[in-house]
Design brief:
The protein has about 375 residues and is mainly beta. It is built from 5 helices and 16 strands.
Length: about 375
C-alpha cells in the first residue's frame, strides 16, 4: 500500500474535468511523492501556458478513419475522466483532438502510426487523442513521441464488444523533454487490449496507463520496457480497476538503469471490487541496476474486496547484474563487456518479442544497443 494507509479504492475515486477540483500537488501526496515537481515546468500548478506545439501526423491504415476535431466534439471524454490535476489541466487546455476510428467488424490491414513531434525546447503544449474501436473490429496502433516539448495529454482507448486493440507507445523524446500523460483503456464485453510501452528519452516522463471494464470477458495485457540514463526520471503509474465479473489483466514491466541520478518509478495498482468475482490478475516489475548512483522505486499494490477470484498476485524486484551469469560467460571466453551485453539482452528479449510492429522492435533493440555503448 506504500506510505498511505488509505485503501486503493479510496485513493483512486476522485475524477473531474475541472482543474479546480484538484489541489496543486506539493509532493507529499501519495500519487506525487516520487515525482520531481520542480522539473515539470509548471504542468502541475497551472503556470505552464501554451507557448509552442506538438505536431500530430497520422499514417492510417486504409480501413481506419482519422479526424481532427474541436473541444466540443461529444465523443471526447466519454471513456475517461481526468484523475489528477495535470490530466485535468491537459483536458481543459487542448484546442484540437485527434480521433481514430476503426469501423465495426473491420480488421485493419496494417498498423496506424500516430507521430507526435515536439516543436522545440521549452515549447509547452497540451493534447488529446481518442481511439475508438467499434464492435468486432481489430487494429494495431503506434504512438511515436519524438522531438522536444513540455507536453501533457490524455489518450482514450475505447474498445467495444468483441473488439481487439494492440498499442505500441514509444516515448523517444529528446533529452530535455517533459511529458506527463494518461492512457486509459475502457473495455467492453469480451474486448481485448494489448499495450506495449517503451520509454527511453526525455528529462522527466510520467506515464499513467489505466484500464476499466464495462462488461464481463474483458482481457488486458500491459507490458512495458524502459532504460533510464543519468539524471533521467522515468515514472510509470498503472491502475487496473476490476469492477465487473470474469475479466482478466496481466501487467509486466521491466527496466534497466545506469548513471548517477537515474531514477525509475513503477507503481502498479490493481483493485478487485466486491462485484468483480472471477477476476484473474497478476502484475510484475523487474529493475536491473547497472551502475552506482541509480535508484529504482517499485511499489505493487493489490486490493481485493471479494473472496471469489480466479487468481491474483504481484511481484517486484530490483537488483544488479547476476555475477554468476557474467562469470559463466567469461569462463567460456566471452569478454566482460560482451557478457554484460548478452545478459542485459536476455533480460529484455522476452519483452521485445511482444512488440507487434517489426520496425519498432528493431528500433528499440538498436536503442538498447546504443544505451549499452555509452
Amino acid at each position: 500500500m506504500g506510505l498511505d494507509t488509505k485503501p486503493l479504492s479510496t485513493l483512486h475515486e476522485k475524477s473531474s474535468y475541472d482543474v479546480a477540483d484538484f489541489p496543486v500537488p506539493t509532493g507529499r501526496e501519495e500519487e506525487w511523492r516520487f515525482t520531481p515537481l520542480s522539473r515539470l515546468k509548471g504542468l502541475h500548478n497551472g503556470t505552464a501556458a501554451v507557448t509552442g506545439g506538438v505536431v500530430v501526423d497520422v499514417e492510417a491504415a486504409p480501413e481506419v478513419r482519422v479526424e481532427t476535431v474541436g473541444r466540443d466534439d461529444a465523443r471526447l471524454g466519454r471513456a475517461y475522466t481526468p484523475a489528477d490535476r495535470v490530466s485535468a489541466q491537459a483536458y481543459s487546455s487542448f484546442e484540437k483532438a485527434t480521433v481514430v476510428t476503426v469501423p465495426k467488424m473491420t480488421a485493419a490491414s496494417r498498423p496506424t502510426v500516430v507521430t507526435l513531434r515536439g516543436s522545440g525546447a521549452g515549447a509547452t503544449a497540451y493534447g488529446h487523442i481518442l481511439v475508438s474501436v467499434e464492435p468486432l473490429a481489430e487494429a494495431v496502433l503506434v504512438l511515436d513521441h519524438r522531438g522536444s516539448a513540455v507536453y501533457a495529454d490524455n489518450v482514450e482507448f475505447d474498445v467495444a464488444e468483441g473488439a481487439t486493440l494492440k498499442v505500441v507507445s514509444v516515448q523517444d523524446w529528446d533529452d530535455d523533454a517533459v511529458h506527463v500523460s494518461h492512457h486509459h483503456a475502457r473495455l467492453g464485453k469480451d474486448a481485448t487490449f494489448r499495450s506495449f510501452v517503451v520509454t527511453l528519452g526525455g528529462d522527466v516522463v510520467r506515464l499513467s496507463p489505466s484500464v476499466s471494464y464495462t462488461a464481463p470477458g474483458g482481457d488486458a495485457d500491459l507490458t512495458g520496457l524502459y532504460f533510464v540514463d543519468a539524471d533521467q526520471h522515468l515514472e510509470h503509474r498503472l491502475l487496473v480497476d476490476h469492477s465487473v465479473p470474469n475479466c482478466r489483466s496481466n501487467v509486466t514491466y521491466k527496466g534497466a538503469l545506469q548513471g548517477d541520478g537515474a531514477h525509475a518509478v513503477w507503481i502498479g495498482d490493481v483493485i478487485i471490487r466486491a462485484e468483480a468475482e472471477g477476476t484473474d490478475t497478476y502484475e510484475l516489475n523487474r529493475n536491473l541496476i547497472l551502475t552506482d548512483g541509480a535508484r529504482a522505486d517499485s511499489v505493487p499494490n493489490l486490493e481485493i474486496l471479494t473472496g471469489e477470484v480466479a487468481g491474483a498476485g504481484h511481484a517486484s524486484a530490483s537488483g544488479r547484474l547476476d555475477d554468476e551469469h557474467i562469470f559463466y560467460l567469461q569462463a567460456r571466453g566471452i569478454p566482460f563487456d560482451e557478457a554484460r551485453r548478452l545478459v542485459i539482452h536476455g533480460f529484455f528479449t522476452q519483452m521485445l518479442e511482444k512488440i507487434e510492429v517489426p520496425e519498432i522492435r528493431e528500433r528499440v533493440l538498436s536503442a538498447i544497443e546504443a544505451e549499452l555503448a555509452r
